[in-house]
Each structure stands twice: as structure tokens, then as C-alpha cells.
Amino acid sequence: MNQLTQLLGRIQAGDTEARDALFAAAYAELHRLARARLRDGGRDTVMDTTCLVHESYLRFLHAGELRAEDRRAFFAYASQVMRSVIVNSVRERIAQKRGGDWRPLTLSTSLAANVADREDTVLKVHEVLEDLEKADPRLAQVAQMRYLGGYSEQEIAETLDITERTVQRDWEKAG
Fold first, then answer.
1. Which of 145, 14, 126 is nearest to 77 (CA)?
2. Whole-angstrom Cα distance, residue 165 to residue 91?
């Protein structure tokens, strides 16, 4: 755990090799986070957990600076990046489907309707989180970590440095 904070410090100091070391050290936890993200909020994308972790890593690289002081901030940021990757993936799939009256042929028409409904749900959740973030950023963080990240109340409390009871109240308000 302390290793991640040290690597983040090296990145802040300009050590370019520390970024790869950080992702290598955090890979298992990022994979767990991606699995939770896909299970709870983005299961209807064509992405698997490894793809989501790798796409997120590429976003980190293209973003330039990594602004995270410690382990908690890093995983909170990683959670947001994963959400962004999932939302963009869904948007791209929806955009590809817009082809006039052309409809893909499936053996069951109910399957195609269910996938479209679930993709819309991912986008609706994203929009609700954006609105919630404008109103109350901490509520949005709690909702994102709980619903999309699969974090327990205790993990959220530790990450955000608040009590579990505060997490419970925030979750009730956000819901």
C-alpha cells in the first residue's frame, strides 16, 4: 500500500519510469475495480475487465500529468477514468447503431431490445452522476464508488476519509 504512495510521489517529481511501475503494482486492484465497474454499471459493453484496465491506462498516459497524492486519490481517479471509458464505449456503440432503419438480425428480437435498454441505462446513470456531482460532489463520489465501483461502505469511508455512517447517509440521499 505504501509502495503506491511512494510511486505517486516519484511521478509527481517527474520520474517517468515510476508510472509504469505504479500500474504494475496496482494492476491487481485496478483489475478488481474494473470487474466491479463492469458488473455493476457497464456490463453491457463489449469490453472485458482486462480491456477496461488497459484502456484506462492509455487514458492516463494521454492525459499527461497524474494528479494523485496518495493511494486513495489514485483509485478514486482510476474509478472516474473507467467510468469515462465505459460511457464512451456505450456512446460509440449507440452511434454505430444509428443507420436509418437498418436493424441487426437476431434470433430473438427481445435480446436486441434488452441490450439497447441496458446501454441507455449506462448513459442515464452517467448523466445522473454528473448532475449529482454538480449538486454535491461527495454524494456523487459515494454513489459512483458504491454503484459502479463495487466498494463496501467501509472501503468508501476509508477512501474518502469519512465515517461509515456518513457513507450510509450519503448513499440514502443519493438514492
1. 145
2. 36
Rounded CA separation 24/144 (Å): 25
pLDDT digits 0-9 by tens, 139-169: 888 888 887 777 888 888 888 889 999 988 8
Cβ–Cβ under 8 Å, residues 52 and 34: yes
**What is the model's pTM?**
0.58
In a 3-state reduction of DSSP, which class is residue 94? Answer: helix
Tell me the C-alpha distance between 51 and 56, whole Å.
8
What digits encode the pLDDT tens for the residues 56-99?
A: 888 877 776 677 778 888 888 888 888 888 888 877 777 766 65
Cβ neighbourhood burial of 7 (10 Å; 0-12, 13-18, 19+): buried
- Cα–Cα distance, 18 to 166 (Å, whole number): 35
Residue with cell 428480437: 109
